[in-house]
Amino acid sequence: MAATARSVRSNAAPSSNRPESKPATSSRPELRLISNQRTQTQGNVVGRVIEWTRTRSAPLVHVVIAVAFLMGTLFGALMLRTQMVQNSFEAAQIEAHISVLEQDVEDDQAKLDQLVATLPDKASDMGMVPQQGSVSIDLNGYQPSSSSTTESGK
């Protein structure tokens, strides 16, 4: 099998831009010094941003408005989240306070029930006797005397 020669073609630069004065048999390319401009302007970020906005179609005012809007929304979201956390903390405290108050009411109700249960024993220890029969008074036929109505009308 015969080996075919391969040619190397590059689209990096058109052949018309190649200098004709240099011979093609040169073994080493010519070296040039390229200075790093990025290190010189790294400290001046604001200057770079202003220069960038001047080279673009959007003016600096639009960029400033967009950044201010983003900062405003971030600040608003932060404030809203802070308020929500504060409200949830207050709600948790109120619920804890309510549960403590409910326990206090239950304790007081238990003490009251205990005192009501011991009331007949304490009354009998003091010499009181339970009521034997019930007495009721019917006031349906009650008619006030004439002297009481004239005195109350004055």
Briefly say what this structure is.
With 154 residues, the chain is an all-alpha fold. Helices cover 58% and strands 0% of the residues.
Protein model, in words:
With 154 residues, this protein is an all-alpha fold. The chain has a domain at 59-88. The chain is 58% helix and 0% strand. The chain has 4 helices and no strands. The longest helix has 66 residues, at 60-125. The radius of gyration is 51 Å and the shape is rod-shaped. The protein starts with 37 loop residues before the first helix and ends with a helix. The mean pLDDT is 80.
Describe the secondary-structure layout.
Layout: H1 38-41, H2 45-55, H3 60-125, H4 146-153
Tell me the strand percentage band: under 5%
Distance between the termini: 143 Å
Q: How would a crystallographer describe the biggest sheet?
A: none
H/E element order: HHHH
Q: What is the tally of beta strands?
A: 0
Structural class by secondary-structure content: mainly alpha
Cα radius of gyration in angstroms:
51 Å
Protein name: Cell division protein FtsL
Organism: Bifidobacterium myosotis
Keywords: Coiled coil, Membrane, Transmembrane, Transmembrane helix
